[in-house]
Amino acid sequence: MKNCILSFILLWISNVSLFSQHAVTGYVNLDTSENWEQKVYLTKIKLYNDNKTYDSIPIGTSTINEKGFFTFGQELFDSKNYIYKLHINPIAVAKRKELSHTVKAFKLFILSKKDTIHFAKSDTEIFGTHASNNIANNELQKLKKFEARYENLTSDFDTKKYLLETRGYVKDSLQILLVKLIGIKKLDEQNLLEKDVKSNPDYYLNLLIELKSSDLDPATYLYLENKLAYITKNITDQKYKTSIWINIFAAIVICILVLILIRFKKKSKINKPVLLSKQEKAIKTLILSGKSNKEIANELFISVSTVKTHITNIYSKLNIANRKELMNKFEI
After folding, report:
1. Nearest to residue 130, comparing CAs of 84, 194, 195?
2. DSSP for 46-65?
3. N or C: which end of the chain has fewer CB within 10 A?
4. Residue 269 region by backbone torsions, left for phi larger than 0, else alpha for psi between -120 and 50, else beta
5. H/E stretch holding 317
6. What pTM value is reported for the model?
7. Which H or E run includes 200?
8. What is the arrangement of strands in the sheet containing 117-119, beginning at the earlier edge strand?
9. Measured distance CA(5)–CA(169) in Å, rounded
10. 170-179, 297-306, 311-320: which range is least confident on average?
């Protein structure tokens, strides 16, 4: 009994040691093994700045044993999260195109040096389901399940519903920045990103700030940064053009109002009756009859200075400057 327990402990320790040194372990299902190479290939996906084109960089191979088991060591992986791909190749090059349409001979996943992932053996697929302790990879699988509902778009596809559901999922559920970028890229592929940025500019600008302050390679989010710059520039240009037209319209309205006000004032001055006092009317009549200031003072029994004061008031009320203009105004 003691020997059995000791053997079990040694076996468990050896398995822990084995898996602790390997980042990727698993099984492949090769029912028709004569069609396939007995190797699993590991490549690192390098995204370009446009986030649409990429290169697959080979980084390792693993020989498949008689049970279909394969492994890849931790030394092959980077300390940061990157997207990787496992795949196997048909033996005959001529069969590759034919098999690629009927068999899914690859798996994509996210991993770093400190994580592990294990592929269970499947009875129906070459690579079965997998379990990983990488949070980003697990969130990516959730996103893939979510997007699976929209793989075959039809004419009755509800873009608004997809926009709301996808944006909500990206914002609320995906806490890993790398996976957020994948979700945003999916929005762009559906031509929904620009609409969402315009509706929620603060969210995307804050996300860009978060990305820049993270340890992610700037190349992974340069695409989003350029996209936001393009969209926000268009929004700013549109607002600027709108502002110019509003200012032009306001200037025209102000000019029209000023002209109306000037015309109204002129019309008011023309039509407004001049109200002279009784004494001013008497002095105006005497001026029109050719009387001098002294003669007017003697006739009205007032001082010459009082006459001058009344004349000044008359000129002001009639908007004239001298006796000649007074004579002309009343056509004497």
Report:
1. 84
2. EE-TTSS-EEEEEEEEEE--
3. N
4. alpha
5. helix 304-318
6. 0.46
7. none
8. 69-73, 22-27, 117-119, 130-132
9. 49
10. 170-179
CA 98 to chain centre: 42
Dig out the tokens for 142 from the structure: 């959730």
Token pair in block for residue 8: 């079990």
177 and 210 Cβ atoms separated by less than 8 Å: yes
Q: What Cα–Cα distance (Å) separates residue 101 from each residue in 126, 186, 234?
A: 14, 23, 42
Q: How far apart are CA 116 and CA 24, in angstroms?
A: 6
Token pair recorded at residue 202: 């603060």
* Residue 63 contacts residue 39 (beta carbons within 8 Å): yes
Q: Give dist(CA 49, CA 52) in Å, integer.
A: 8
Q: Residue 327: which of 313, 310, 315 has the closest Cα? A: 315
More confident: 124 or 65 = 65
Lowest average pLDDT, out of 174-178, 231-235, 315-319, goes to: 174-178
* Residue whose tokens read 């559920």: 173
**Cβ contact 184:147 at 8 Å:** no
Q: How far apart are CA 32 and CA 74, in angstroms?
A: 30
CA atoms within 13 Å, Cβ hemisphere of 61? 7
Sorted by where each starts, the structural domains of the chain and their CATH numbers stand as: 2-133 (2.60.40), 143-272 (no CATH), 278-329 (1.10.10.10)
What residue type is assigned to position 122 of the chain?
S
The SS3 of residue 119 is strand
d(C-alpha 326, C-alpha 279), whole Å: 17
Q: Report yes or no: 114 and 92 within 8 Å, Cβ to Cβ.
A: no
Cα–Cα distance measured from residue 58 to residue 47, given in angstroms and rounded to the nearest whole number: 14
What is d(CA 146, CA 53) in angstroms, rounded to the nearest whole number? 23
Rounded to whole angstroms, what are the CA distances from 301 to 36, 279, 293, 306? Answer: 135, 12, 12, 10
> Which two three-digit tokens encode residue 294?
């002294």
